[in-house]
Amino acid sequence: MVLKKKKEIQVDAFFLDHQQLEKLQRFSKAEEQNLASLLLRCAQLSNGIQQIQCIKQIMPLVKKMDQNSACDPMVKACLDILGETYFSLGTKNPLKKVLASSLNGLPEQFMTLAVQSFVCCLGEELKTTDVYLYRKVLDNLASCMEDFSLGRASIKNLFEEVLQFLQKSLLDIQEENRQNNGNRIVQTQLMHDLLIAIKVSMMFVQKLQENIQGSLWKHHKSFVWQSMCSLLKSSTNFLTDATLLQTVQTTSGLAVILFTKAMYEPVEELPSLISDLLLGSVKHAGVPVWFVNNCGTLCTEELSDSVLLFLCHGALAMLEWKNGSMGENGEQLLLDIASVLLSLSSELKESSMATSLSRILAIWTNSALAALVSASPNLKIKLNGNSDVIGKLLEYIYTHWEHPLDAVRHQTKLIFKNLLQIHRTTITGFNEKSDPFFARLIKHLLSLEWHVKGKYASLGCLVECVGTENILQLDRTIPVQILDVMNDQSLAPYASDLLETMFTNHKTHFTLSFKDSTWIDQWHDIWVSPLLVILCEGNHDQTTYIIDYYLPKLLKCSPDSLSYMIRILQASADANQGSRSTRGALGALMACLRTARAHGHLELSNIMSSGLVSTECIKQGLVHQHNQVCIDALGLLCETHRSTEIVSMEEMQLIQFFMMYNLNSQSPSVRQQIGSLLRKLFCRIQESSQVLYKLEKNKTKQELLENSTERHPLGILQQYKDFLSSVCDRLFEVLFPGSSHPTRFSALTILGSIAEIFSVPKGQAQVFQLDQEIDSTRVRTLIQCFTSTFEEVKVLAFGLLMKIRDVALNLQDSENLDLLFQAAMDLSTSTKPYDCVTASYLLNFLVHHEGLQRICLGKRVEHNPQTDEDTSVSTVEKNTLSVIKLLLVNVEEEIFQAKKSLLQAASSFPMYGRVHCITGVLQQLPFNNLTLVTEWKEMVARLILMSYRLSAVVSPVVQSSSPEGLIPMDSDSESVGRLQMILHEIQPQDTNDYFMQAKILKEHCKVEPEKLSDHRPVENICTEMRGKERQTCDVTAQMVLVCCWRSMKEVSLLLGTLCKLLPSQATSEPSDGLITVEQVKNIGDYFKHHLLQSRHRGAFELAYAGFVQLTEMLSRCNSESLCKMPEQWLSCVLEEIKSCDPSSTLCATRRSAGIPFYIQALLASEPKKSKTDLLKMTMKELMSLAAPLNESSSVIPQVHALNILRALFRDTRLGENIMPYVADGIQAAILGFTSPVWAVRNSSTLLFSALITRIFGVKRGKDENAKKNRMTGREFFSRFPSLYPFLLKQLEVVTNTLNSEAEELKIHPSLFLLLLILGRLYPSPMDGTYSALSMAPFIPFIIRCGHSPVYRSREMSGRALVPFVTVNEVPHTVVSLLEGLPDSTSPCIRQNNVHGTLLQVFHLLQSYLESKQLVSSDFQQGLGDIITCIRTKLWLAKRQLVIACFGTLALGISREV
Predict the structure, then answer these.
(1) How large is the angle between the packed helices 184-207 and 209-216, nearest 10 degrees?
(2) For site-directed labelling of 156, which of 122, 319, 998, 1396 has its Cα 20 to 30 A away?
(3) pLDDT at 483
(4) How many angstroms separate the CA atoms of 1198 and 1201, rounded?
(5) What letter would DSSP give residue 1187?
(6) For the residues of 43-63, what is the DSSP string, one character each?
(7) Residue of 204, 212, 192, 207 whose CA lies nearest to 134
């Protein structure tokens, strides 16, 4: 609704040197404007926008010159300067494009001179020898060839020079990249330069191809030919170089095909050559020598999967597929490319490669469509829907339509859409709606479960082909089924898109079929009536998603349906007002009206004046017991299609009525929505008030206003002001001390919106200003909100005070200011953790006060008088520096005392509060605009030193093997010995005997331990201490631990904040930075030490937060030594894990403590678009460590590896880059589960759980067997092909154990894990016959797993069997299982076997019936065989031990049948 303000365009102005200016001044004329004077005036402007306007005046002036002006030296000088200016401008500067556009209109008589000037300038550019300046030259070449006739003419004149430069640039950049191996920042820059060089080379060949071909074909020894060969060879090298960025390799694939196409003769044979390259069947006898010499690696070596992919892309993009210009060879190449791409789909698993493959397959379908326009009958047959190629493409679609990557899913939809078009093209002249291929697709898609996301997009594509009516004829309940699915937010967008496609197509069908509008009732019955029923009676999630996703699309398609909805809902609104769980007709009416008004389909004033909706009805909605009905009623008032629509008096009164009852909502989502909707209302008031101000000023438009509203503009503006004032009064009233958190949150959110929206630049009329409503009492109210225990209230209160800080600070007198500051200092050392947060916000507010230095800080800390007198230093900077000095002095004294007694520190002055306040005030400081740089450098050094000292005091506790404390419960010698061992381990810096003696410490009194004769027994679980008020307080081990780990947390966050100071100074001299490279390295070593040594989770988790800030800074840093630090740290820790050194201090318990966090931070900071070399190296090492070891080897490295892998697979920042390692992780977890060591089994279990979530998604519901978190067997093994042989082999091992007669009760450890994975799969009617992975080998092993003596295993084997049996094989398999049950004459009956078999039969039949195959004649035959078999086994039900399970399962089977 609210229009975004347009951003101001920033244009960098150009400047001429002294010599150029002198030249222009010499030719310029004061009495009249000529070209030189115009350019001189343009150059003297400092605003780029003004220069653009000036440049646009050049051509009109030039066109007025006569023919003889071409000989004027002034014109020559001006054209020279224009050329120099053009080549000096950056490629993204709008001035460059404006100048090129103007010069395109240069009169013919000046073209020769202009070309000479530009050739001279371009020639100078081409003489560049610095590799790092090549980018500018390449950008200029690209600009010259893009719709710039003068630039293109210049390049033609320097054809050979440009070709030589391009050849040289490729070689030089490649060599420079090789020499900078390891310097990631420089290499990334060089690779992007290389990418541009390749693109410019391709553009050069494409734009100037006629020049090339004329010189190439006949003179193989010419310079041009040799240069082209060099370009081809370089492109081939780049294509096969796996160390380059993927974008460079992709573009190189395009270049190889383009250059070969330009050089190859006859061109008709080119498709055959490319086919041979892709299929690896190149014969040197038929290949030109020049091609072998330059592309030898493509001819002689086996090409990698990525090279094949990029060559396919090049062929599809660079060859001409239209008009059948390549003949039969081209058609065969098209089929070969499809074959290669589909074979690669099972090999390329990296996310970037999988995305590229899907995109290239979509390009292939576009090329196939282009080729089919004039294709031979043979190609049409081979691309028919029933062909192998299309079948394999469908298999790819079914496997990837639920791929985790959005890009892959999107491309898969495009492939399916194009595939349908391909089939339609091949059957031109036949009835598409009755085509068997389409009919088969529709049948298969409708038989799928609605949780399959790919089903929606595919059905939408089919609707466009066959029409909605044909699909509804198969099942009229489809709209209702889709609406039922919309209680799941992940499916709602897909479902709404399909519904929109269907009802839009259906409406078009009715419109064309019927001349009158009699069809509308039928359309309403199908698409609108089910919607209204669900809105009235549906659950909260379903109705919300339908209103958000479906209702706006329905109203957009048929706005007239709104009156039908209102009529139906009004009729039942009084009788069905809803409840807490359902909206009722009243809630449905509010939702429809809100949506219609927000999208411009109705005016609220019209429906209220006409009586369709009364004020009382809206009031009922505003106080409805269902929260969402209240929100919809509020949305009806606040949301409009036009942001300038005037707010009526009735609306303002209703808003005030709403705020009386709803500010205390207990639902966070409702509070968020209230804030959002009222913000829209305030924006509307602001926008409409500006319109009213303009109307009031412009009296000529007064009549327009009178026609649009009966109220006078000034009257409306006064009503706005009164309304907003009353709203503020109400909001400040509810912010009384002790008010609830929901009320405070709502009030502060709304006040913040008012303060933000109604703050405009000075001089602009404003209908309301919050500053005028503020007094000292209200400021005190906002400051009191800092005491809330909810930090979000503190954040909102602080944000509001900052928006009105001028008024708020002026209302603070000296006495009050001093009290607030003292309160902040006291709270900063409170033992209650949330008090220090309050202190931080309070200090952040006070540092903006100009008198803080004089009133509060002057008597507490020494300061420099010169700093006070320096007016160039901002108030915030001076105050912040002084506050940090004061906090630092205090914390340094407290650290000194803590070294004497950590107990006293924990109970009286925990140091973490001071450090938290320091970090808080630092984060508000604009580090890029500091004046007191010297003081800040000194301060940063002191802060870093303080952090190390504080950490040294508290770290022994969090790094001990028992950080939670071990208070002795007895005084025997064994306990004393254990305590002494722990003391020796942690080496505390304080002198108190923490574990053995209790101390009573009094103010100003220090008692020596040996003088305490009357101390309490060691059984006491706490130490008594007296605070400043001489009240006895208990110091427990928990208090000491809290003090220690929170101190470690704050130190880590402070150091992480300080590390951020380096990037802003990265381009300056080291002495100019607030923090040095050496300090950053030391901080990195600190984090490394504490992450790897800490045992307490709170300590290392929060050290991780600071370490992440450091690693992210290192990844962006220009310093080579800093960039390499993550790699060095990673190598060191992996080496230490592998070494199994007994002296290693790495924690092998507590899930490896901070080690996984340390490695996570290092890997997650690696640039996303890089080759992720660190991740690859780490995963390779970890997978080798996680593999089962020899019995003689230590298991600690294996435990560490499993724990680290678990953390990495759970890290969402690694995204799809981690997916290629999932299969290896599954193997490591399953094999680790068989280890005799408990620690390995435990870590393997945790890893397996993380992998199941990674593969199948986060579990959203309570039903373990829900299909939301499952996938088809074919999709699973297609994404993880290496798991196919592994799982099969493991199943064989497991079943061999189960079948051992001697060891009937021995259960293999991997059985449960294997069945858990296989049970997450499900069958799909879309599974075709084109996959190389057959499901059949798994079946006998899973059947044997059903004989397990464990009930849970038998049940899981029944579910796991289902996805491996195809639909047409179910009856046969069921009969076979039933026949395997024992006869009455069998000597030995195993009850577990009988139960397991019946479970498998039950689940097979249940799944079969769900697949809607009842109409099949084969099913009827199979059903008879099944019933016959069951009858022969009914004797089992008479056995006492079997009757229960057999009877229950038989009943279930009979119900299914």
Answers:
(1) 80
(2) 319
(3) 92
(4) 5
(5) S
(6) HH---HHHHHHHHTTHHHHHH
(7) 192
Buried b (16+ CB within 10 A) or exposed e, 157-183: ebeeebbbbbbbbbebbbebbeeeeee
Q: How many other β-carbons are positioned within 10 Å of the β-carbon of residue 780?
A: 15
- DSSP-derived 3-state class of residue 206: helix
**1006 — pLDDT class (breaks 50, 70, 90):** very low
349-388 per-residue burial string, b: 16 or more CB within 10 A, e: under 16:
bbbbbbbbbbbbbbbbbbbbbbbbeebeeebbebbbbebe
Sign of CA dihedral 1319, 1321, 1324, 1329: negative
Residue 866 or residue 1031, greater confidence: 866
CA distance 1067 to 185: 13
Strand partners, 1035: 1023
- Distance separating alpha carbons of residues 398 and 409, to the nearest angstrom: 10
Cα–Cα distance between 1297 and 1300 in angstroms, integer?
5
Alpha-carbon 1328 to chain mean position: 34
* 534 within 8 A of 560, measured Cβ to Cβ: no
Give the β-pairing of 1032-1035 and 1023-1026.
Answer: antiparallel
Per-position DSSP letters for 82-113, written without gaps between them: HHHHHHHS-TT-HHHHHHHHHHTT--GGGHHH
Residue 1129 in this model has a pLDDT that exceeds 90: no
Residues 703-748 have pLDDT tens digits of 554 545 456 888 888 999 999 999 999 999 999 888 899 999 999 9
Could you tell me which residues are beta bridge partners of residue 336?
A: none
209-216 vs 223-240: helix crossing angle, rounded to 10: 110
Q: Please write the tens of the pLDDT for every residue from 246-271.
A: 899 999 999 999 999 988 888 888 89
- What pLDDT digit, counting tens, does each position of 1372-1386 carry? 888 888 877 777 766
Sign of the four-CA dihedral 459, 463, 466, 468: positive
Range from 441-455, 1062-1076, 1109-1123 carrying the lowest mean pLDDT: 1062-1076
Taking CA atoms, 135 is separated from 88, 180, 192, 199, 1426, in Å, by 13, 17, 9, 12, 75
3-state DSSP assignment of residue 1352:
helix
Asked whether 909 and 829 are in contact (CB, 8 A), the reply is yes
Exposed / middle / buried, residue 1372 (Cβ in 10 Å: 0-12, 13-18, 19+): middle
User: Would you place residue 861 in the very low, low, confident or very high pLDDT band (cuts 50, 70, 90)?
Assistant: low
Q: Which of 643, 645, 628 is nearest to 594 (CA)?
A: 628
Angle at 31 between CA 28 and CA 35, to 5 degrees: 35
DSSP type of residue 434: G
**Structure confidence at residue 233 (pLDDT):** 92
Compute the distance between CA of residue 1279 and CA of residue 1273 in angstroms, rounded to an integer. Answer: 10
Taking the C-alpha atoms of residue 311 and residue 356, their distance in angstroms, rounded to an integer, is: 12
Question: If you write DSSP's letter for every residue of 673-711 in order, what string do you get?
Answer: HHHHHHHHHHHHHHHHHHHHHHHHH-GGGHHHHHHH-SS
Q: Find how far residue 1182's CA is from the centre of its chain.
A: 26
Closest to 1417 in 3D by CA, of 1378, 1371, 1364: 1371
Q: Has residue 414 got a pLDDT over 90?
A: yes
Confidence of residue 836 (pLDDT cuts 50, 70, 90): confident
Q: Which two tokens stand for residue 770?
A: 């919050």
Half-sphere exposure of 838 (CA within 13 A, CB side): 24
Taking alpha carbons only, the member of 805, 809, 783, 806 closest to residue 794 is: 783
> How many whole angstroms separate alpha carbon 949 and alpha carbon 342?
61
Q: How does DSSP assign 1046-1095, residue by residue?
A: HHHHHHHHHHHHHHTTTGGGTTS-GGGSSS-HHHHHHHHHHHHHHHHH--
Identify the CA nearest to 727 among candidates 694, 682, 790: 682
Cα–Cα distance for residue pair 505/464, rounded to 1 Å: 7
Average pLDDT, the chain: 80
